[in-house]
Amino acid sequence: MKVFKDQLYRTVFLHDTPKRIVSLVPSQTELLCDLGLRDSLVGVTKFCVHPNDIREQVEVVGGTKQIHVDKIKALQPDIILCNKEENTLEIVEACVGIAPVYISDVLNFSDCLELIGMYGEMFSVEDRAEALKNSLRSQLEDFKRFVEGRDRYRTAYFIWKSPWMVAANDTFINYVMELQGFDNYFKQLSRYPEIDLNEAALEGVELILLSSEPYPFKVDDTNIFEVISPTAKILLVDGEMFSWYGSRLTQAFEYFKRLRQEQVN
Predict the structure, then answer these.
(1) Which of 44, 207, 208, 209 has a Cα at 20 to 30 A from 10?
(2) pLDDT tens column, 110-119
(3) 69 contacts 94 by C-beta, under 8 angstroms
(4) pLDDT tens per residue across span 196-208
């Protein structure tokens, strides 16, 4: 019997190294594949789009907010991977009745490294996990040198439309924004609050970022912001780069550099 603590400090008991994994978190599905565990995946969500063919090869068991419990049961998983932000309490409770459940909670870079290390230990891929952690540490330090001394911007990051919602404090997006020198205009709020979109709400904002997910903002969506906040710079950004922790970060730091150099300065 192996005993682990997940990132909510829950105790997870495993009889052996899991060979049948259900992942209910897209970024974690990608991480598992990059750790060489693709063949161990037996269930994923419809939002697990990386690798791009994973849903053709692995059973789709629902989304991140709604799952097909019977499908998951039929897969006889050794472990189910969830996330505090992505999955509901009801989903977790349903999954606990099927197999051991590991819940991640990633708000910063240290949490990300901890999760990678834990996956390495749980799934017996310690060497690959350590190599990925070392690569990410190096890229982070390089990016910190790149961004040092650059101007900071009061920034609003929008994730949804109708109602308008932003990323605030206590989120991985907030951590990534601050890392880039984008001071979160809504950091006095928590998680993903709804806001009343008007001039007063965005007074003093210098940079507006419209995410590609979960709401897929398009060029036409910039029009309203050009009226409400005419002095702000408005950019469409890749939401995966801002919110997908794990191996996606191996691409994110170069993306952040290009964003700064080519669009923000």
Answers:
(1) 44
(2) 999 999 999 9
(3) yes
(4) 998 778 999 999 9
